[in-house]
Specification:
Blueprint (H helix, E strand, L loop, with lengths): L12 E3 L2 H9 L6 E4 L16 E3 L7 H14 L4 E3 L1 H8 L4 E5 L9 H4 L3 H6 L14 E2 L6 E6 L2 E5 L6 E5 L4 H14 L3 H28 L10 E3 L4 E2 L1
Parallel strand pairs: 1-2, 1-5, 5-9
Antiparallel strand pairs: 3-4, 6-9, 7-8, 10-11
Helix pairs in contact: 6-7
Length: 238
């Protein structure tokens, strides 16, 4: 798939998910990025891009205090992240693909967070989640022209062909993460690169599995019991 609905491959991309940002660089497409989230910090080159988001809480607090603050915001129905429309307008401007996730409202920016941004609402085809469960696909708008007020004193008319698309990822397993490589590559019009990168990573995983299996079999050693945590206080497993 070279593009969606015969559209040209994106040239200006915003990534609001660290994994997607790294994937774009691994695909050799990092030069298409024009904006990032506060969590997109690798590879180092990405730090030179405009950062369009920030958390609405003190990230330097203790694990327990951050957890308490997040739970309180969730209970109050408040967003955890803020998008910076001024940076979007002045430093990013027009873009034609935005990548985000809808797996965890705490871990990274979600489609609901995108609705806070007037600039993103004006520029993209859709900012809501997909009620049919198709939110891993690129969402497109209806074929109509719409008036958008990008700034208080500037009104422009944007046709659907000029609207940016969204790629909303929702991985739940390791295999989902590998499949997302193909989704990103397809959205960028380079499906062959996606297949190559996914196969490379799968081979590395298979190699690790083989090494671990061989080591425990030849030495008659018990397989280690491993706990993988994503939060310390309170303890949360991945």
């Amino acid at each position: 798939m070279s593009s969606t609905n015969n559209q040209q491959p994106p040239k200006r991309v915003i990534s609001l998910l660290g994994a997607a940002t790294e994937t774009l660089y691994r695909l050799g497409l990092g030069h298409h990025l024009v904006g990032r989230s506060h969590e997109c910090d690798y590879p180092p080159d990405v730090l030179s891009l405009p950062c369009i988001s920030r958390p609405r809480l003190d990230v330097n607090s203790s694990s327990k205090d951050i957890d308490t603050a997040v739970r309180q915001k969730a209970a109050d129905g408040e967003p955890i992240y803020k998008l910076d429309d001024e940076v979007l307008r002045k430093d990013v401007g027009r873009f034609d693909l935005l990548i985000a996730q809808d797996h965890c409202r705490v871990c990274a920016i979600t489609p609901r967070d995108l609705e806070q941004s007037q600039h993103i609402r004006a520029m993209t085809c859709s900012t809501g989640t997909n009620p049919l469960g198709l939110d891993k696909d690129i969402m497109n708008a209806a074929a109509v022209d719409v008036d958008v007020d990008v700034e208080a004193d500037v009104t422009t008319r944007t046709s659907v062909s000029e609207k940016a698309r969204q790629l909303i990822l929702k991985p739940s397993t390791l295999q989902d993460c590998l499949e997302d490589i193909n989704r990103i590559a397809n959205a960028m019009g380079v499906p062959d690169r996606g297949i190559t990168l996914r196969n490379t990573l799968q081979q590395r995983l298979d190699r690790v599995q083989h090494i671990v299996s061989t080591a425990t079999t030849t030495t008659n050693a018990k397989k280690p019991r491993v706990a993988l945590l994503e939060w310390c206080d309170p303890i949360m497993g991945c």
